[in-house]
């Protein structure tokens, strides 16, 4: 099953001299062409979609170019405000220089990569190569075969270099999607320190994904539902009822949407923002997307499969500028620390369900009848949603008992069999 | 292997939805197989599956519409432990895939079987699929007799196929239909009879290695 042979057909169609490389910008961060003499990644042409340029974008471009003339005297806050505001860093020419600056990569960190042969003994080598070879969709359409293979080798080297430098970090499927985005924009020398910054350190956004298990990732994804709930309780209830969980958003979070979006321009726009946002921010973007798609969610069957199917496929026309604004607002209004109790309650509930499931499995294997849910969870169904979330099992029982007592107090007649007979 | 209670196929009567989980090592072709079955073509630029993907197709069995839900899982082990667990819930049937050109993917079948067992699915219909039989030389491919021995040991039918070849399209179809019929009837399955029942969309099982004896492991 070799899908490569189709690529030769595309060689003639490709266009490599497309994007206008600004000569004055080829500063120190621009790496020289490597031994394969392939074009620098920024010369690769992804389809530019807008012929018309809004005046404010033209203005922003001028301002960015002004700053790039003398990058040493520009504060990182300035780069961040460019990256966050509308249209982000606009062009890959700018991104190539500014992305490393956003995460504080210094010139000394730019080193030549080792050869692929030196790294091929690494235990993760096969898995990485397997995933890299299947990353065809991420390359510009019509890229020449030789060039793509050379870039794929660079990608494998880039990933292996990071996990060799930090052996406790584990490669995950999806890491290659982040790495390739950095590689296509920044080239192989700058993308290594950049990827290191994103992978290693207490606040490194990719670090939780690279732990021994996916438990930390799962935990962080659990922030999504409480964020949605605070914005739209009915929507959260709808998601909850379907049992869809968070799996539909897993590739979004693990790859910063690189795996799931068809348009390259959307991916790099999001990366502009994520490179200077808090590590949990992509989860808020996930919540914003779900909120944006609320009408579709409401009209979908409350069925896990249908809901997963609907949400996991991202439409091509998502208004990301608006979504980022909403996500930023959600973040400001619902700080992760505020959400912790809600996430903890959600995880407690999941844990209980899991135990129940295990118990059912055990009984099924032993050939006995499937047990019903415990009394407290059955009662909990009749409580209003906010109360249910907050209430542990004992509280539910206590509240139920109290309500019953009040009811009996006011209607003692129900305990008298035939009140009229006494007369 | 007793499985004839209605319990093993929950939801069968009400919804007519069969949930099949597709398992196997990374890169064996799980995504391409499910895509071939649901879309009728080869997935050209397939990517690594992150987490769980979902595809479905409605098939007709004895004039009845049956929805087959295929849950295509990530092959990398780290996704198995905590993330994919959730998707084993209410699974009706299991497909395990290996790559006939990569013996290591065949050797991990044992650990996939353990996984299935831990989810109480040993009595659910299961099939073993050796994919990529178009690749490599006959010598470099895992011998069918060897694979058959393991399939017999676990009591599941073995299929060898290729998601790539259009000529194998019918065979891929028959693999999923085997599971569908097994789920539908919960009777000892006579694979030959599928042909007559499906009419124009018949399933040919010519490439199946042991059509006659397979019945012994298909039935409970």
UniProtKB/TrEMBL annotation, chain A:
InterPro entries attached to this UniProt entry: Rab-GAP-TBC_dom (IPR000195), Rab-GAP_TBC_sf (IPR035969), TBC20/Gyp8-like (IPR045913)
Tree of life domain: Eukaryota
SUPFAM superfamilies, A to Z: Ypt/Rab-GAP domain of gyp1p
Pfam families registered for this protein in UniProt: RabGAP-TBC
GO biological process: endoplasmic reticulum to Golgi vesicle-mediated transport
Record's keyword annotation contains Repeat: no
GO cellular component, one term: endoplasmic reticulum membrane
Annotated Rab-GAP TBC domain residues: 89-278
Keywords: GTPase activation
Molecular functions (GO terms): GTPase activator activity
UniProt name for this protein: Rab-GAP TBC domain-containing protein
Annotated source species: Leptosia nina
TrEMBL record, chain B:
Primary localization: membrane
GO molecular function: GTP binding; GTPase activity
SMART domains: ARF (SM00177), RAB (SM00175), RAN (SM00176), RAS (SM00173), RHO (SM00174)
Compartments, record wording: Endomembrane system
GO (cellular component) term, any one: endomembrane system
Keywords assigned: GTP-binding, Lipoprotein, Membrane, Nucleotide-binding, Prenylation
Biological processes, Gene Ontology terms: Rab protein signal transduction
Tagged with keyword Protease: no
Protein topology in the membrane: Lipid-anchor
Alphabetized NCBIfam families for the sequence: small_GTP
Family: Belongs to the small GTPase superfamily. Rab family.
PANTHER family on file: PTHR47978
Name of this chain's protein: Ras-related protein Rab-33B
Organism of provenance: Leptosia nina
């Amino acid at each position: 099953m070799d899908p490569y042979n189709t690529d030769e057909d595309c060689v003639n169609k490709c266009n490599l001299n497309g994007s206008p490389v600004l000569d004055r910008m080829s500063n120190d961060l621009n790496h020289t062409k490597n031994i394969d003499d392939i074009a620098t990644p920024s010369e690769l042409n992804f389809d530019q979609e807008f012929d018309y340029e809004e005046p404010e974008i033209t203005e922003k471009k001028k301002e960015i170019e002004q700053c790039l003339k003398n990058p040493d005297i520009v504060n990182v806050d300035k780069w961040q405000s460019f990256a966050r505001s509308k249209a982000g860093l606009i062009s890959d020419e700018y991104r190539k220089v500014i992305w490393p600056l956003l995460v504080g990569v210094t010139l000394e960190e730019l080193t030549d990569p080792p050869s692929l042969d030196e790294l091929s003994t690494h235990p993760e080598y096969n898995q990485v190569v397997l995933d890299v070879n299947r990353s065809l969709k991420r390359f510009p359409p019509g890229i020449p075969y030789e060039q793509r293979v050379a870039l794929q080798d660079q990608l494998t080297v880039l990933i292996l270099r990071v996990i060799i430098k930090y052996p406790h970090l584990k490669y995950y499927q999806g890491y290659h999607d982040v790495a390739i985005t950095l590689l296509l924009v920044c080239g192989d020398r700058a993308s290594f320190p950049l990827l290191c910054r994103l992978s290693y350190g207490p606040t490194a956004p990719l670090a939780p994904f690279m732990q021994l298990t996916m438990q930390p990732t799962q935990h962080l994804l659990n922030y999504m539902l409480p964020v949605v709930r605070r914005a739209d309780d009915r929507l959260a209830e709808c998601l909850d009822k379907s049992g869809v969980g968070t799996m539909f958003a897993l590739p979004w979070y693990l790859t910063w949407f690189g795996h799931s979006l068809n348009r390259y321009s959307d991916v790099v726009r999001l990366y502009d923002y994520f490179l200077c946002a808090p590590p949990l921010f992509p989860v808020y973007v996930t919540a914003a997307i779900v909120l944006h798609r609320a009408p579709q969610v409401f009209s979908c069957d409350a069925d896990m499969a249908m809901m997963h199917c609907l949400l996991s496929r991202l439409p091509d026309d998502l208004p990301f500028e608006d979504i980022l604004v909403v996500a930023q607002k959600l973040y400001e209004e619902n700080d992760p620390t505020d959400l912790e109790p809600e996430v903890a309650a959600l995880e407690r509930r999941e844990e209980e369900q899991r135990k129940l499931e295990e118990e059912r499995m055990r009984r099924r294997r032993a050939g006995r009848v499937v047990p019903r849910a415990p009394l407290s969870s059955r009662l909990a169904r009749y409580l209003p949603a906010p109360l249910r979330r907050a209430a542990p099992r004992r509280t539910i029982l206590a509240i139920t008992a109290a309500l019953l007592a009040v009811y009996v107090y006011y209607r003692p007649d129900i305990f008298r069999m035939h009140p009229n007979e006494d007369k | 292997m007793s499985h004839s209670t209605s319990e093993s196929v929950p939801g069968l009567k009400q919804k007519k939805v069969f949930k099949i989980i597709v398992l196997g090592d990374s890169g064996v072709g799980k995504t391409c197989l499910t895509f071939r079955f649901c879309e009728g073509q080869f997935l050209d630029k397939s990517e690594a599956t992150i987490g769980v993907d979902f595809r479905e197709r409605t098939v007709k069995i004895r004039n009845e519409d049956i929805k087959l839900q295929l849950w295509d899982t990530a092959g990398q082990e780290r996704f198995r432990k905590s993330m994919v667990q959730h998707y084993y819930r209410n699974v009706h049937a299991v497909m395990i895939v290996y790559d006939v050109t990569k013996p290591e993917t065949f050797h991990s079948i044992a650990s996939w079987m353990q996984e299935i067992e831990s989810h109480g699915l040993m009595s659910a219909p299961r099939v073993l699929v050796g994919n990529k039989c178009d690749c490599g030389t006959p010598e470099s491919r895992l011998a069918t007799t060897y694979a058959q021995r393991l399939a017999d040991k676990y009591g599941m039918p073995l299929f060898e196929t290729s998601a790539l070849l259009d000529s194998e399209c019918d065979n891929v179809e028959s693999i999923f239909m085997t599971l569908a019929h097994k789920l539908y009837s919960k009777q000892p399955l006579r694979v030959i009879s599928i042909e007559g029942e499906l009419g124009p969309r018949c399933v040919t099982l010519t490439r199946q290695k042991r059509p006659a004896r397979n019945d012994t492991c298909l039935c409970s």
